[in-house]
Amino acid sequence: MHSFDVLVIGGGHAGVEAACAAARMGARTALVSFDLSAIGAMSCNPAIGGLGKGHLVREVDALDGVLGRAADAGAIHYRMLNRSKGSAVWGPRVQADRVRFKAAVQAMVRAQANLTLVQGEAAALVLEGGRVAGLELADGTMFHVKHLVLCTGTFLGGILFRGEERFEGGRIGENAAHRLALQLRGADLPMARLKTGTPPRLDGRTIDWAVLEEQPSDGEAWTMSPLTKRRINPRVFCAITRTTQAGHDAIRANLHRSPLFSGAIAAAGPRYCPSIEDKIHRFGDREGHQVFLEPEGLDTHMVYPNGISTSLPVDVQEEVVRTMPGCGRAEIVQPGYAVEYDHIDPRALTPDLQVRAIPGLYCAGQINGTTGYEEAAAQGLVAGLEAAAAALGKAAPKLDRANSYIAVMVDDLTLQGVSEPYRMLTARAEYRLRLRANNAATRLTGLGIAAGCIGAERRMWWERREDARKMFHVKHSQKVHARELADLGLPVRRDHGEKPLAEWLRYDGVTPEALAPWLGEITALDPLLAEEMAEDAAYAPYLARQDSELRDLRASEALPLPADFPYAEVPGLSNEMVERLTKAAPGTLAAAGRVPGVTPAALSALLVHARRKAAA
Amino acid sequence: MRSADTIFALSSGAPPAGVGVIRVSGPAAREALLALAGRVPEPRRASLTRLRDAEGALLDEALVLWFPGPNTATGEDLAEFHCHGGRAVIAAVEGALAALRGVRRAEPGEFTRRAFANGRIDLAEAEGLADLLSAETELQRAAALANAGGALSRQVELWRERVLVLSAEVEGVLDFSDEEDSADLPECFTWNIGALAGELSEWLARPRSERLGEGFRVVLAGPPNAGKSTLFNALVESEAAITSPIAGTTRDVIERSVAIEGVPFTFVDTAGLRDGTEADAIEVIGIARAEAELARADLVLWLGAEGEGPQGAWEIAAQADREGFATKAGARFTLSAVTGEGVAALKTALVETARAALPKPGEAALNARQHARLAEAEEALRDAKGTSDPLLVAEELRRARLAFDRLIGRATTEDMLDTLFGRFCIGK
What we know:
The complex is a heterodimer. Chain A is of the alpha+beta class. Chain A is 37% helix and 19% strand.
């Protein structure tokens, strides 16, 4: 019998982060996967980051996760989305070479101390007195472990659909963990089904790139992780094409053959990433939809046509592809398909991603109803940190809605549940102005160091950076008169008096570069930090205004609601509200206010009853 | 947790009246029905029943209603007895109720308190009800009723939805800009924000609900012996005295609050200020106070020499009964408080002027707390209108939403706790 502090099932993005995070915390950790060579595989589009998602990558990285550095190792195309808008909504996104990305993940996993890799099929949880005691593999191997993280993605009861065809398994060519699924079903956990999909992959040699509009990588120097010193791979360019009326006609004529419309798939798919048949069906008046042709790597001809995820039969997929400009002779290497899979209603989880009904069992990733590598990785990180902390009697970094997108996601999931695959959006974060992708390290790395999950390399990097921050603060508090700025030709009125440099940075047209005479060498020392500090100064008045809001939030967070709070006994709550509150079991009054459908009047009632209970 | 006690109160007007409605709320409401009516009627159906006391003596023949909780006005089990409205009948039924175990007479405002504690009404509605309970004049009552009925809450919901729509448009631009669908903000966007901010400004410019409590402040001013005190007495005498929540800060002025035709007034006689003061130092203090009073006034009645009163004051030619009376050329009113000549006309004009300056009947009026929140929302919208960065527009719109949430108590914030545990004494 083998014994571990934490055991992680699954080698996808969630599983990798969970296992590495637990190991970084110092827990003796095992990662169990069907196929160790598949660890770090990107099963869908070869891109990491994007709007909201880029924030998650940077936050996972700030807590010393794997994703950011692996993305840099594989990156062959960089774009900073939303560059023209305020920096809080900039979304760093890279396209990664699948092979290089996977190799980087595997190298990091294998180099991780305290982490054992186990190839095998997880067959059954061993429970003792209702809580996790171990895991049995299909070959009979037993593991003794009290903290188990389930990161099984779409493997749980997954069925693939392609036209009239059906396959079992989460990804083409792999098995589904059916025994485990049956056991979880039997455990009476609230389960539901969702669907997701993927487009056909094209052979790049059969695409006429010359007729298409190019989308080059940006010419800047940023990377996903600050520990990556520079961009290493050659850059490729993507191209933009569109679907056409002829293609739409082909889709319409074959809608009855799509499992989405024939009724074979009843589960909800992501609104933010709909299949092409969904788009045609819902926006019938559109003449065409944009499709990004994204090369999958440097050593492959595979191209990922982003925007035509589909479960139509292969012959229809071919017809649709060939009506797109530049793709008249394009060959499909691997057809697209849809996956329908089980997920746990995440309201059954506590904020540490632990199943309320089965102590010791944590869930992370797609199994919780989310979509996307970044969402999965971020949950894996939380579950791994929390499981290790519980196993070792430590405390995980305290994440909340005011310090991370990670916490926004976990809070949304555990309080609101999901009705479609959950994808991160910047709009979900109410304290967005303070949660920028480029200040993730400032927000989180210190917390990580305190919790003990940050490796030596990043710790040293961060300490040097903190020293630099102090120097910036000193420089920024230096007072300068408006006349001096105006004399340099800056757009400042001469009668605006004397102010600290930090305040001048709020003025349009006053940049850190323009303040070089006062800031001196320091900007050149760390340009990224200089930019971050300048943005802090610019947003400062808005952040100050949020402070009172945060104080109020913390006050209502101080009022606890026990998990077994008798909502049904509070008069004035509708049956629907009682049901939602009971399912989500918010830990505090503040959390109860975020459960959908809870009215102001209901909240007052809760407040009064919770106070009375607390006083009693 | 349900309240342990069951409470009752006469919820219609004071007897004698045509009908007297006695409300019973709480866990023993059902037992109360059984005890007095002998049965529990079908929920929400009026049924005619004979009411008897514990000894079986007939109390009245009444309509009784049964509302099982929690979907009732108070959120608890509720019973109603619609009795004949005579004093003796009401007293007898109330006596029989009070004799039941666990049933007691309600304290003032207790039904409201329970409705709030049980989530039947939100913060703004509760504030309205609290005002309603302390309303002493017809105008106060009408305004409080509008708030209690949810007029303000409904309006805030509408504003909030409009801000949500605006927010959704900005968020679309921010979160989907990598997709072709995301156009820039529509041209009418800024105009819509401005229109909403304008609407809020109109509400903010309305008279505040405290004005109803304080009353329309009329100051009588003029030199000694100009007839101020006599007129003061003529104005306040025979009118219903009301209590003004604003205590007079100086003892040297005489002020009295009365309702004339349902409109609350506070009349201030500055007579005490100068009359009989001889020492210069005191004189100076007196003058300063008089000036402060004049500044606080909504209206000044000037009884002194023509043109010497403060600006906007009504020129009053008083003491028309006196020998050698000389009226003013521009007198607005010529009157004699002694004979009563002209006083009625002055009162009519005062009521008319005050009505225009106080919240309109039936129109939801804002109290200080609500006004502050709404002002915050308005400021956020104005800032949003003046910003071009969609990220900051989104932040300002969020701030406006937050202000609305606080106004109706959606955000469980400190001011809500204060309201709850201060004004309503919940938590006992």
